[in-house]
Each structure stands twice: as C-alpha cells, then as structure tokens.
C-alpha cells in the first residue's frame, strides 16, 4: 500500500515538474517574441518609427540582378539613382507584409507610382512588402514616396552619363551630405554588393519633414575601401 502511495506521489510530482517546465517555456517564447518586436506593433500598419528612402544605383542592379527588369535596364535609359522603395522602419528592424488582405493599387495610384519608380512591377512589389505597413492607402503611400524622393537632392557627381569610377563609401556619403542641408552620415547608409555601389538609404522622419538619425542602419555601412560606380547606360 505504501508503495502504491509513493508511486502516486511520484507521478504527481513528475506531472507538476512537467507543467512548470511547460509554463516556463511558454513564458520564454512570449518574451522572445516581444524582444523581436512582436509586441511593439509587430506587423501592424502604421506602427513604426521612421522611414527609409532607398535609392538604388541602377547600373549595378542591371549588371548583377539575375532577372533584371527589362524596362528599367533598356539601352539608352541612362538611369542613375532610382527609387527602390520607401520603407517603414523600427529603431531596430522593420515590419513587412502588414496586411493579410492586400488592397490592390488603383490605376490612379499606379500613375502616381510611375512618377518615381522605374517599373510598375517594382512599385507593386514595394506596396505589398512595405507600403502595407505605412498605414496609408496605395495612392497616399505612392504620394509619400514621391514626397520623400523630392526631399533628397542627388549630388551632381551622380547625375548624367559618365565613365565607370571607383569611390570610397565615405566619399559617396559626404557628397550626399554636402548636397542635402541637415543630412549627416549617421542619418544614412551606403550599401554595396559585389564590390559595387548598390544603394544609398536615407532616413526620414515619419512625417517626412526632415532627416533623422538611424544609428543601427548607419552601422551597416559598406566596409569596402572603394566600390565601383558603374556608368549609366
């Protein structure tokens, strides 16, 4: 009888330990989600800290993309910096694909997008991935992208056709700083790929009224001593 009682008590203890471990695991999982932004707004539209305007150097994209957009890369377009996207951003990380039910852009919205994006396919992709996190409808999001692009001056060194060049990433940043009043190196990122200039990403306030520091992004600057700035073709 005592053996049976002892066995029952042992079973209850083991069940209690298992329950405690399960509760601890559930708690840890919840904490992990919170650390990753799951409870900072997660992927809720409009819940972000600032915008990033990503300006892609088109010659690098056309040279290195596995399947480059034929319209953007058509001979004679001579594109330099083009809008890649306007990205809602957290202080650390970013939301994406925020709407389970996508609101397709209207024809009028796509007309606005056509003023700033190099291709319709890119504009639609950016709406799905990033625009749905802005809290705006498609037309308003594309207008915001247009406004953000208008707020950034492309340095003269990157305007017009010219030969391939080699520049230090810090020199590229300095050219943008000199061309844009209020912009500082800690408000932007120069990105490279395969030893070539890929993008310049400018951090803007959520209301798009000015530039804003983004140290986490700035720390990810290209580390190459020099990068190729391919000629527009």
Automatic annotation (TrEMBL):
One GO biological process term: RNA catabolic process
InterPro entries attached to this UniProt entry: RNase_T2-like, RNase_T2-like_sf, RNase_T2_His_AS_1, RNase_T2_His_AS_2, RNase_T2_prok
GO MF term set: ribonuclease T2 activity; RNA binding
Pfam families associated with the record: Ribonuclease_T2
Signal peptide feature range: 1-33
PROSITE patterns per UniProt: RNASE_T2_1 (PS00530), RNASE_T2_2 (PS00531)
Alphabetic keyword roster: Signal
Family membership: Belongs to the RNase T2 family.
Name of the protein described by the UniProt record: Uncharacterized protein
Source organism of this protein record: Methylobacterium hispanicum
